[in-house]
Design a protein that fits this description.
This protein is of the alpha+beta class. It has 2 domains: about 55 residues; about 110 residues, 2-Layer Sandwich (Tetrahydropterin Synthase, Chain A). It is about 50% helix and about 20% strand. Strands 1, 2, 3 and 4 form a 4-stranded antiparallel sheet that branches. The longest helix is centred in the first third of the chain and has 56 residues. The radius of gyration is 29 Å and the shape is elongated.
């Protein structure tokens, strides 16, 4: 009698499992597909925004062979006073800056490192770097080491009158105290 009762309970549990599996297949799976579709649409929208940002800075659309890495201040470190954070101490950033130029830009022939006026623009790069970095506190840099890079790039592109000339600005070395 016990074996028959166990068999009946096992069969009932198998039947309940089969019914719940059918519910999952016919009720939950379509909802999951709807959620996946929504996620795909959101990802597509984000991807479009990311492409817009990449095209704006240009680095992803210009091949490496058409990029020139210009070392500001001849690759030497620059000491820049940081904004006061209220702790009563003076803080300084020591930074080496690299500017990535687009060799295919019309402005490269005029303002690039191979132009006859190339040395005249190093002070312009330094000026924009100092102007941007000096408005941040040491706490700002502790939270985000890439502060100001996009702003420097945009300012330089505005100065040269070509949004595709300067592709990016990066800090190859950043120390603060």
């Amino acid at each position: 009698m016990k074996k028959n009762l166990m068999t009946v309970i096992t069969m009932v549990l198998c039947l309940v499992n089969l019914i719940l599996s059918a519910v999952v297949v016919f009720a939950v799976v379509p909802e999951i597909n709807n959620v996946n579709s929504l996620i795909a649409k959101v990802a597509e929208a984000i991807e479009l925004d990311v492409k817009t940002g990449s095209d704006a800075d240009g680095a992803s659309t210009v091949g490496v062979e058409n990029q020139y890495l210009y070392k500001v201040n001849s690759g030497e470190s620059m000491n820049i006073n940081l904004k006061d954070n209220g702790d009563g101490k003076d803080h300084v950033a020591v930074v080496k800056v690299t500017v990535t130029m687009n060799k295919t830009s019309e402005k490269y022939a005029t303002f690039g490192p191979d132009s006859e006026n190339a040395g005249n623009y190093d002070d312009v790069y330094k000026s924009y770097v100092i102007q941007e970095i000096s408005q941040y506190t040491i706490d700002d840099f502790k939270a985000n080491n890439s502060l100001g890079q996009d702003e420097i790039r945009d300012d330089l592109n505005g100065y040269f009158g070509d949004s595709s000339f300067i592709l990016s600005v990066s800090y190859s070395e950043l120390m603060y105290q």
